[in-house]
Amino acid sequence: SSFAQADYPCFILDDALAPIWCNEAAENLNLTKGYATHFVAMTLARSPWAAGLLANQLAVTLNLSDGALMGRNITLLPLPGQQYLVTVMAASNLPFIPAFSQNLRNDITDIFLLLPLLEKNIEDARELEYSERIYRNCYRMLRSAVNTSTLNQLIQNQPVKAQLIDLNLLAEKLCNGVNTICSPKSNIPLTFIKCEIPLFIEGDEKILATAILNVLQNAYIYTRDGNEIVLRLSATGGRAVLTVTDKGAGIKPENLLHIFDLYFSVLPYDDDCDRPGLGVGLALTKETICRMGGTVAVESRFGYGTSLTLAIPLALDSFFASPPAEYIMDKYSPLFVQMCDICCFPTR
Q1: Residue 74 CB neighbour total at 10 angstroms
Q2: Strand 190-193 versus strand 239-246 pairing type
Q3: Are 201 and 317 in contact, with CB atoms under 8 Å apart?
Q4: Does residue 28 contact residue 227 with C-beta atoms inside 8 Å?
Q5: DSSP character for 314?
Q6: Distance from C-alpha of 207 to C-alpha of 285, rounded to nearest angstrom
Q7: d(Cα 89, Cα 149) in Å, to the nearest integer?
Q8: Backbone angles phi, psi at 110, to 5 degrees
Q9: Cβ-based neighbours of 30, under 8 Å, separated by 6 or more
Q10: How far is CA 321 from the centre of its chain?
Q11: Spacing of C-alpha 149 from chain mean position
């Protein structure tokens, strides 16, 4: 009776994971008609250890990565008669994320400050390579901290800075910045195609820049030399449309439905060309665009390339300007943080 009166969704599933009961909170969220079956089965398929715990009659709690319920926890509790109780609740660990992120940034800052001092006493070229690896991994940790904290801010519906953004200008300076810091290390050119008409949208420029750079980051790291990446802007139906197209690895069909899932990350090739990321970047991109009233779409053919499109409602035309070199002058800007896997870092 306590679960029937709970203000969070609750289900009871049979031994085949089919729903046989749900409470009013689940009905109010339209989580019936097989949703529980589909999600639980998908979750267990991607978490063999969870299936093992259930087989031994132990409770399992997992973080949800499904669109409308992203950021919540699902708990599966075995019941007598080979049935399962499923509850969906707000993730209790979310409030601690900002504090964790800030503490991590403080530690990374200390490393950034100490590395140049250590490098002054290094003469061996191989040891300098180790220093470069430490530096790049610090940027990766900083990226994880920034993306996780920002995504938490969006999921919790916390206020973000609202401003008028010239998308043509923002995309141009991001592309120029990426070409500037990545071309010495990467043989993959980034082409920018500007829209012929002004594209003004409303949102938080720094968060939007992070979202766009996450798309470009994926286009770069999941590819090979000889690839071509194009960022194209256009307008249709009262929306600004930003499309990033590459001729890289593409996405396997079985992974295509999950690329925006929180913490979902896989290697595109069969070899170990690179390690997958944390799986937060594209989830952040989708959440950012949805918060702006927009949509995200992806088309991909494995082995041939991917096209990812962000469509954002247009705002009224207005004056907007910011220094084009702004993102390059700040070595901790989203440009360096998000592109840290393939960029050349500023002088330390």
Answers
A1: 23
A2: unpaired
A3: no
A4: no
A5: -
A6: 9
A7: 20
A8: -60, -40
A9: none
A10: 27
A11: 11
Q: What is the pLDDT of residues 143-168, one digit of tens each?
A: 888 888 888 888 777 778 888 999 99
pLDDT at 206 (0 to 100): 93
**Which residue is listed with tokens 């132990």?**
58
Contact in structure between 54 and 36 (CB atoms under 8 Å): no
Can you tell me the distance from the alpha carbon of 265 to that of 271, in angstroms, rounded to the nearest whole number?
Answer: 15
What are the pLDDT digits (tens) for 278-330? 778 888 998 899 888 888 888 888 888 889 999 999 986 544 444 455 667 77
Closest CA to 312 of 244, 246, 235: 235
| pLDDT tens for each residue of 74-127 | 677 777 777 878 777 665 444 456 667 777 888 888 888 888 888 888 877 777
User: Are 178 and 337 in contact, with CB atoms under 8 Å apart?
Assistant: no
H/E element holding 165? strand 163-166
Residues recorded for the chain = 348
In degrees, to the nearest 5, what angle opens at C-alpha 36 toward C-alphas 295 and 300?
35
pLDDT of res. 322: 45
| Radius of gyration for the chain, computed over Cα atoms and rounded to the nearest angstrom | 22
Distance CA 36, CA 310 (A): 30
Q: How confident is the model at residue 73 (pLDDT cuts 50, 70, 90)?
A: low
Sign of the C-alpha dihedral, residues 340, 149, 161, 90? positive
Q: What is the pTM assigned to this prediction? A: 0.66
- Region of 238 (left: φ > 0; alpha: ψ -120 to 50; beta: rest) is left
Helix (H) or strand (E) holding 235: strand 229-236
Distances (CA, A) of 63 to 69, 70, 91, 101, 322: 10, 8, 7, 18, 39
d(CA 86, CA 98): 28
Give the sign of the dihedral formed by CA 45, CA 274, CA 219, CA 225.
Answer: negative
Dist CA 115 CA 42 (whole Å): 44
CA-nearest of 131, 217, 211 to 182 is: 217
Please report, rounded to a whole number, the percentage of residues in the chain having pLDDT higher than 90. Answer: 18
| Chain mean position to CA 97 | 16
201-241 per-position pLDDT tens digit: 999 999 999 999 999 998 888 776 667 899 999 998 889 99
At residue 325, φ and ψ (nearest 5 deg) are -90, 5
